[in-house]
């Protein structure tokens, strides 16, 4: 048994709240050495295509609460644009990388720290995972990923023309996203749903 979401045009307040929570999640803890400034979400689009949930097990079903295990899949058109600054020369962590970067007009082979702005666009998300979903009228939505959901994400940045850096950034962002899905996204969804249910009960 499966069903589809009605995917609305999300409100400006939703985007503001989600952006604030994503900013906090992206800047907590340690970041890759190349990041020389805080990371900011400058554009957030939930896209026009909803995720799909396939029911695998229903553990609880009452008028006030639902708990079930689902298979979640997503292949929509959501995207996020991030802004930060990077310290370019630490990227030269391998001699072969230095050779490639040194041939790219020399900008990343500086002997002194070189801080440059960078934009990152994350798109073409492909997710597939088993999740535990609890929906409560009083407590909001709780979602926990039981398996790693990230199948694909396209990462485009200011440095796409330099292959070695593009590959490095892709790997780093994928790692950060996997950690976010495991630790931060469930908390963000829960807090956003609490604000939504609080507004509905007023």
UniProtKB/TrEMBL annotation:
Q: Which residues form the SMP-LTD domain?
A: 1-194
Please give the biological process terms from Gene Ontology that the record holds. mitochondrion organization; mitochondrion-endoplasmic reticulum membrane tethering; phospholipid transport
Q: What InterPro entries does the database record attribute to this sequence?
A: MDM34, MDM34_N, SMP_LBD
Entry annotated with the keyword Mitochondrion: yes
Keyword vocabulary terms for this entry: Lipid transport, Lipid-binding, Membrane, Mitochondrion, Mitochondrion outer membrane, Transmembrane, Transmembrane beta strand, Transport
Give this protein's Gene Ontology molecular function annotations. lipid binding
PROSITE patterns reported for this sequence: SMP
Choose one Gene Ontology CC annotation of this protein and give it: ERMES complex
Report the locations given in the UniProt record. Answer: Membrane
* The name this protein goes by in its record: SMP-LTD domain-containing protein
What organism is recorded for this protein? Tulasnella calospora MUT 4182
